[in-house]
Amino acid sequence: MTNKKTFDPNNPCLFCHPKPHEIIKETEHALLITDSYPVSPGHCLVIPKRHIQTFFESSAEENMEFHQLIQHAKKWVEENHKPDAYNIGCNNGVAAGQSVFHLHIHIIPRYIGDVENPKGGVRWVIPQNASYQLPEVK
Length: 138
Known about the structure:
The structure is a single chain. This protein is α+β, with helices and mostly antiparallel strands. 16% of the residues lie in helices and 18% in strands. The chain has one helix and five strands. Strand 1 (23-26) and strand 2 form a beta hairpin. The longest helix has 22 residues, at 60-81. The chain is globular and about 60 Å long. The model has no long low-confidence stretch (mean pLDDT 93).
């Protein structure tokens, strides 16, 4: 039997105490931080200072600042990484893949060729339903 501790990002909450060197910008209600495990160069997160689990619990004031920080993230990423596109989103609940139970909005820069066929984008969260054909226009 081992006494080796496993990392739990929720105890203490990873986003309640971000590392100062991760912070890109701060507002009254939210932070823009770099992602510790980026899926692409420039991947960053918007997190509320208030500990809430999902986007649906956020206030109008928080949402306004989330929008401002997402816009700032785009500017910061473009200055530092020159992406071709973006995915923006958050996981709300275990069934959606949420593993850190403090709301965090991903800003994921995308680059031509980073995946073979990016069509469908966020639809790939359920791979068997990701691919689609647009109806022919007559």
